[in-house]
Amino acid sequence: MPQQINQPGAPPFTRRLLDIYTGAMLTQMVEIGYRTGLFEAAAAAGPATCRDLAARAGLNERYVREWLGGMTTGGVFLYDAAADTYALPPEHAAALTGGGARNLAPQSRMLNHFGRLLPQITERFHTGGGLPYSVYRPEFTETMDDTWRRIYDEHLVDGFLGAVDGLTARLDAGIAALDIGCGTGHAINLMAARFPRSRFAGYDIGEDAIAHASSEADAMGLANVEFAVRDVTRLPAEPTFDLVTAFDAIHDQADPAGVLRSIRDALAPGGVFLMIDFRFSSRVDGNLGNPFAPLYYGISLMHCMPVSLAEGGAGLGAVWGEDRAREMLKEAGFARVELVGSPRPQNCIYVCRKEA
């Protein structure tokens, strides 16, 4: 069948469909390689036979052989038939190994996790409504932490905070900061460690995430940070914050408009709201040709939209787009909104200031 599909006369979309199905299968195989340490083992010592690679990773040779067959024909590994060895090219290893933000292998965990919820999502096409956030935990919490802590380690201070003129200087001097939808709190803990004169808070609805955040803060010996499980549509009027951040969190909310108003009210005069979100158009035709669009429409369908709809919310989705975001920020009372670049091409940074 594949040979027929790839014949010159085969319909282009049929070939495209094969690519789609192949990508779906390879996503599962990438997760296997990530979870078992096969990518790290392959990158550590260069070309190896299947038997040697399996021994190096402490795995069953027969399963490793079948996995290598898919990885090799899928263009991830290279195979030397004469030597019977498999190699992970350095440029491929850079995207699949290590503790930095360039390692994209953790993304496979999230996508495959969503796939396990496919029957429930499909049912919602008939019934409407959504899936509560609790259905996604604890695995979603773990996969988000696995992905974002790498990004924070590499880009938080210079890339995200550094995008705003004078912000790191203010943090050095000492201000009050809050992270909305903080998840496992790694961003806030990094900031608290880097800027000891400032005080920090992190709010999230996930009890498991907040427990993880507090545990990490204790392990890091941080005395200037606190975490709480809290409804962020009702932020306390006092104390006010000089900085509020939200990393890809607003579009998931049941009441995003209410959250944005609450954030503005919680800011001190002259305060800054830093909203990191996805860089898309609010219109489908504005996203044509954007290589990230199909992936994030899918992520939105499988998670972002259902968790909001489950609470009777707006269901904005991840691809709510710049026009809608600007409109909602203005309605929330932010008269000054600046859009600046992000160290991640799929993201942008909205810098929203409250009048002094």
Structure description:
This protein has 356 residues and is α/β, with parallel strands linked by helices. It has two domains: 2-97, Arc Repressor Mutant, subunit A, CATH 1.10.10; 112-353, Rossmann fold (3-Layer(aba) Sandwich), CATH 3.40.50. It is 51% helix and 15% strand. It has 16 helices and nine strands. The protein has helices at 2-5, 12-36, 38-45, 50-57, 61-73, 90-96, 106-115, 118-127, 133-136, 139-160, 167-173, 186-194, 207-220, 256-266, 293-309, 321-331, and strands at residues 78-80, 85-87, 176-180, 199-204, 225-229, 241-247, 267-278, 336-341, 347-353. The strands form two sheets. A seven-stranded mixed β-sheet has the order 5-4-3-6-7-9-8, sandwiched between helices. Strands 1-2 form a two-stranded antiparallel sheet. α13 (207-220) links the parallel β4 (199-204) and β5 (225-229). α7 (106-115) crosses α10. The radius of gyration is 22 Å and the shape is globular.
Q: Which blocks of ≥5 consecutive residues have pLDDT under 50?
A: none
Give Rg in angstroms.
22 Å
Which class do the helix and strand fractions yield? alpha/beta
Biggest sheet, spatial arrangement of strands: 5-4-3-6-7-9-8
Q: Can you name the CATH architecture of the largest domain? A: 3-Layer(aba) Sandwich
What is the terminal separation in angstroms? 67 Å
Strand content: 15-25%
The tally of structural domains comes to 2
